[in-house]
Design a protein that fits this description.
By secondary structure, the protein is an alpha/beta fold. It contains 9 helices and 15 strands. The chain folds into 2 domains: 167 residues, Luciferase, domain 3 (Roll), CATH 2.30.38; 150 residues, Rossmann fold (3-Layer(aba) Sandwich).
């Protein structure tokens, strides 16, 4: 039974302040203590999630928060997993799938998302407010209003850029003329933030006419998702150097998804290595788990990546993916999607959530 609320006081507001305090300074708190508050809130106010946890024998008021059952990303295509304490301020959707269903991530508040994205981007790039310009090979958030990537890039530009620029990615590819003009006009360090699909289109159709100013960086994100052709990583990052004048150590790769509020970044790319090492902020815990049992694996073993994201305050804190990876104290190595169908452990969890979706 939910505890009574004081009139006009939302519990998620207090919870988000707790998460924000930990994001700003983790010295006086612990990850699991904050996670405990988050999962207790979600058990109270996220009924579908609470039923799934109960079916798995987990009680947020009794059990170790580190043992909270994670929800596979596929579930977001079938069940709305959000706090019922208030209406959403934003709904992010995944890209289309072969089934036609799109996952939906409903959010009451985006405070921890936005502040965390800004702070970690600053940590990974060394940029300060108003220190650069942005060139965005990303969809316009006023057109694709449910894109978490477009929303995030918009927030980053508003913080770090001295001015505003056009959105240069469209359904048929990159705006070649707009990209060329942006480079010609650049008179300060530039952040070129784009999807792999957008960069691949440039590589195929743009004739380099200039190089980025000193101090610029390139951030590549997202996969190709059936678009165009895939470009080997070394080819793409080699092109960043030869065509844009941005050495691999000034290039970052970003990893996230609509179901998360936090991001991982590489800090420079070493060409010739088969994989890159991603780093996560201290409010995002990444673990590799066994594909069948979904139980955590020892450090250094390869499994499916699970994320405990404190910035998912009012939705689902523990997210299970079908992405293969290895986690060590140095960071996260990504190996791409698990081959074939949804791994059995994830498939069983999806079935459990859906089965309990409409339970009393």
């Amino acid at each position: 039974m939910s505890r009574p609320l004081a009139p006009n006081i939302m519990q998620y507001t207090t919870l988000e302040q707790r998460v924000l305090a930990f994001q700003r300074d983790p010295a006086n708190d612990s990850f699991d203590a904050v996670l405990g508050d988050v999962v207790r809130y979600q058990q109270q106010f996220n009924p579908a999630l609470a039923r799934y946890w109960k079916g798995r024998g987990f009680d947020a008021f009794r059990d170790n928060p580190a043992d909270v059952p994670a929800v596979p990303t596929d579930v977001f295509r079938h069940v709305r997993l959000a706090s019922t304490e208030a209406g959403p301020t934003r709904v992010f959707r995944t890209s289309g799938t072969t089934s036609g269903a799109r996952g939906e991530h409903w959010r009451l508040s985006l405070g921890a998302y936005v502040e965390g994205a800004r702070d970690f981007f600053a940590d990974m790039t060394g940029l300060t407010a108003g220190s650069c310009s942005f060139v965005k090979l990303v969809f316009d958030p006023d057109v694709v209003t449910d894109s978490s990537l477009s929303f995030m890039v918009q927030q980053l530009e508003q913080t770090f850029a001295i001015d505003r620029s056009s959105w240069l990615l469209h359904a048929d590819g990159a705006d070649i003329a707009g990209f060329d003009a942006a480079l010609q006009q650049a008179d300060r360090p530039v952040v070129v933030f784009g999807t792999a699909f957008g960069f691949a289109h440039l590589l195929d159709h743009w004739q380099p006419t200039g190089r980025l100013p000193a101090g610029s960086i390139v951030v590549e994100t997202g996969g190709f998702k059936g678009k165009s052709r895939e470009v080997p990583r070394d080819e793409l990052y080699g092109w960043f150097e030869t065509a844009l004048g941005c050495a691999p150590e000034r290039c970052l790769s970003e990893y996230s998804m609509s179901e998360l509020s936090s991001q991982l970044y590489t800090r420079g790319i070493e060409l010739g290595r088969p994989t890159a090492l991603y780093r996560a902020p201290h409010w995002l815990r990444v673990r590799a788990v066994d594909p069948m049992s979904l139980q955590p694996l020892p450090a250094g073993e390869t499994g499916l990546l699970r994320f405990d994201d404190l910035a998912n305050t009012d939705s689902v804190a523990a997210i299970q993916t079908s992405d293969l990876g290895c986690v060590t104290p140095d960071g996260v190595t990504l190996y791409g999607r698990a081959p074939g169908a949804t791994p059995r452990g994830c498939s069983l969890a999806v079935e459990e959530v859906i089965a309990r979706r409409d339970a009393p």
